[in-house]
Every structure is written in structure tokens, then in C-alpha cells.
UniProtKB/TrEMBL annotation:
InterPro entries associated with the record: Cupin_2, GDO-like, RmlC-like_jellyroll, RmlC_Cupin_sf
Name of the molecule in the record: Gentisate 1,2-dioxygenase
UniProt keywords, alphabetically: Dioxygenase, Oxidoreductase
Residue ranges annotated for the Cupin type-2 domain, each copy included: 112-180
Taxonomy of the source species: Archaea, Thermoproteota, Thermoprotei, Sulfolobales, Sulfolobaceae
CDD domains reported for this sequence: cupin_GDO-like_N (cd02216)
The keyword Ubl conjugation appears for this protein: no
Keyword Oxidoreductase set for record: yes
SUPFAM superfamilies, A to Z: RmlC-like cupins
Length: 382
């Protein structure tokens, strides 16, 4: 049989196999053959020498996203929307049916939520976990209720919501409330483990009853004091802290900076952890805050994690040095958002005369749980 005849016979057999919902190693895993046949079948080789992410590095300007959020608020009321949001859609994923229009990365959601003065978002719960980073808030009057604990919130506060935690949001202040929300909903959906329900009493969506101020959780679990009679679930996946106050985070970063506690690759950085498990604040999401000193270029690194970066204060430059989409440079103003897909080589810089503050969340715990986490730290700024 000639080479051309063999290729034609293979394709004919592949087509016949697919009709019976079958495939084979040669057309899916094989590093060279799968690439050759991939164009016809719309597939990529599964075996690659290094990760080939579907997502692309990308930046969203906060000013533009906030403008669209307010345009949306003119058309959809808080009651109609349940959650009024602008979702950040990764351009590399938006035409892939599974990810649709709700994924900033293959395992992560990212978006802004608006709660205007005088509004509330009704209580519901779901299996995806959630981290909220408060960007704008009134001086007083904004709060969230997690499993009956009322927690007052302000700019910079980090809120963590465990699996199946009942939650509703309120803004009784005189200015609007905006936060960035990060969920593991694409990952949960991929596992077909999505559960959701609203909090309904007598056929009407309502807020859940308040059983205590949330400060008691910060004063106990958040201070390494575990009550002999649990206030909340002590399951290892549950995080009882709920709120990591911005004043504590900033004070810690400032103190570490004054001590010269600088990592050449990561800056002055702290990770939020779960006081019950000692692990990440959420089982599938790693959360960090970073201070980059003035006029500082950090060293490059790359990791197997999809990471979302939010510039909270200052002027930060994210230089993508190697990626599936080539080289890019993102200049971040306050609250701008960047996503870096897995195995992207990048470095961070602060070109300003004052410290810059960065908030990040990533799916690193997923990679670590399955022994898939790798990182390379490069020496020097290039």
C-alpha cells in the first residue's frame, strides 16, 4: 500500500470509528500524528512537551468594565438580575461551547458585581466557592450575610465563601458597592457537580435571618482560637473566617516591607489561609496580596496555574515574556484586571515612586492536589 493510500485508509477508518463514538491513540495522543490529523477533526495532541493552554493572556480596563456595569444597571434592576455583573470572558475560550461566556480561565470565573446604594441581592447558595475583593464601598452600611453571620465590608476587604454557604448582599450606604468576584464555577461545572438553590420563604425570595455579627469569627478562628463548641462547620473544606480585613492585610504587608522581606520573584507577598486546615483559603483557589516596592522589577517566573491579577493601588506593569499568544505588556491602572494562563512566563514591575498593591487568585490548589504543580523561577530580570 502506498503512503497516500495508507493515509486515505486511516482517515476512512477514523471517520467510521467516530460514527460509532470511538477514537484511538494515534489521532488523539500521538505528538506528531495527532497534530497532522487534528485540522480535519478539530483536535489538538493530548501529549505535548509542555502545557499548551487554550486561554490567552488578556487585560480588562476597569474604567470600561465599570461603565458597562452601570449601563447594564439602567436596563436591569437588582430584583430582575439577582446578581448584576459584568463577566470577564477570556478571548481564547469564548467560542468553545463548554466554557461559553462565563470563564476568565478554564477553571475560573472572574467578574464585577454592582450593588447600588439602597439595593440588596437575595440569598442563595451553590457548590462553587467564591472569593470577593471589594474595590469600592460606602464608608458604612455595606454588608454581606454568610450562613447567618453579618459581616460589614469596606474597600480592600477579602471575603471568602465556602461550598454551599448561604449568602446575600446588602448596601444601606450612600454610595455604590462594587467588588470583583472569583469562582471555581467552570471547574465545578466540568465535574458535573453543580448544585444551586435560592433562599425562599412562602414563595418569596428573602434574606436569611441574622444570628450573629461576623466579628466573632474573626475574633476566634481568625485569631487562632477554636471554640470548644463549634460556631460553624469544622469540615476541612470550610473556611470560617469569611472576611480578611484590608487594614490587617495592609498593615502586614507594610510591616514585612519595612523588614526587607522581599522575594525577588513575588515581591512582598502574603497568602490567605484557612485556619482550620492550614491550607489555602479556599480548597480550589489560592489567594494572595502583594506589595511591590517603588522602582522595582521582579524576576520572571512561570507556573502551572491560571492566575487573575487585580491592581488595587499604584501602577503595575505585567510583562508576558512567553505565552501561547506571544509577548505582551500590560500597564495596569487602579483596579484593572489581567489573566495569565498556565505556564505563561511573566514578570511584574512597579515603575512608580510609591509602593503598588496587587491582589491575585489562582487555581494552584487544583494542580497541587493532583501532583501537577510546577514552577520555574528565573534568575535576573530577563
Amino acid at each position: 500500500m502506498t503512503y497516500q493510500g495508507k493515509e486515505e485508509s486511516l482517515i476512512e477508518l477514523f471517520d467510521d470509528m467516530l460514527k460509532s463514538n470511538m477514537s484511538n491513540y494515534y489521532m488523539t495522543f500521538h505528538p506528531k500524528a495527532a497534530e497532522r490529523f487534528g485540522g480535519k477533526y478539530g483536535i489538538r495532541p493530548l501529549f505535548t512537551n509542555e502545557p499548551k493552554p487554550l486561554a490567552l493572556p488578556y487585560m480588562w480596563k476597569y474604567r470600561e468594565a465599570k461603565s458597562k456595569l452601570y449601563q447594564l444597571s439602567e436596563l436591569i434592576s437588582a430584583e430582575e438580575s439577582e446578581r448584576r455583573t459584568v463577566i470577564f470572558v477570556n478571548p481564547g475560550l469564548k467560542n468553545i461551547n463548554f466554557f461559553g461566556l462565563s470563564s476568565i480561565a478554564p477553571t475560573l470565573y472572574g467578574g464585577l458585581q454592582l450593588i447600588k446604594a439602597g439595593e440588596r441581592a437575595p440569598a442563595h447558595r451553590h457548590t462553587p466557592v467564591n472569593v470577593r475583593f471589594v474595590l469600592e464601598a460606602p464608608e458604612k452600611g455595606a454588608y454581606i450575610i454568610y450562613d447567618g453571620f453579618k459581616v460589614d465590608i469596606g474597600p480592600g476587604d477579602v471575603l471568602v465563601q465556602s461550598n454551599w454557604m448561604l449568602h446575600d448582599h446588602h448596601n444601606n450606604g450612600d454610595t455604590d458597592l462594587i467588588w470583583l468576584a472569583g469562582l471555581d464555577s467552570p471547574f465545578v461545572s466540568y465535574l458535573s457537580a453543580m448544585f444551586y438553590e435560592g433562599f425562599v420563604t412562602g414563595g418569596v425570595d428573602e434574606e436569611q435571618p441574622i444570628k450573629s455579627a461576623g466579628d466573632v469569627l474573626t475574633e476566634t478562628y481568625g485569631s487562632s482560637l477554636r471554640p470548644s463548641r463549634p460556631l460553624v462547620s469544622h469540615d476541612p473544606w470550610y473556611n470560617p473566617v469569611i472576611k480578611y480585613p484590608w487594614r490587617n492585610i495592609l498593615r502586614t504587608l507594610t510591616h514585612l516591607h519595612s523588614m526587607g522581606n522581599l522575594d525577588q520573584h513575588e515581591g512582598v507577598s502574603v497568602e490567605l489561609t484557612n485556619p482550620l486546615s492550614g491550607g489555602p483559603a479556599l480548597p480550589t483557589i489560592r489567594i494572595t496580596t502583594t506589595l511591590i516596592p517603588p522602582k522595582t522589577d521582579l524576576y520572571p517566573l512561570r507556573r502551572t496555574e491560571n492566575m487573575v491579577l487585580v491592581n488595587f493601588d499604584g501602577e503595575i506593569v505585567v510583562e508576558v515574556m512567553e505565552s501561547i499568544d506571544g509577548k505582551k505588556t500590560f500597564h495596569l491602572a487602579d483596579h484593572d484586571v489581567v489573566v495569565l494562563p498556565t505556564w505563561t512566563k511573566y514578570r511584574l514591575s512597579n515603575r512608580d515612586d510609591r509602593p503598588a498593591i496587587l491582589f491575585t487568585y489562582s487555581d494552584a490548589p487544583i494542580y497541587k492536589s493532583f501532583g501537577l504543580y510546577r514552577e520555574i523561577k528565573f534568575e535576573g530580570t530577563r
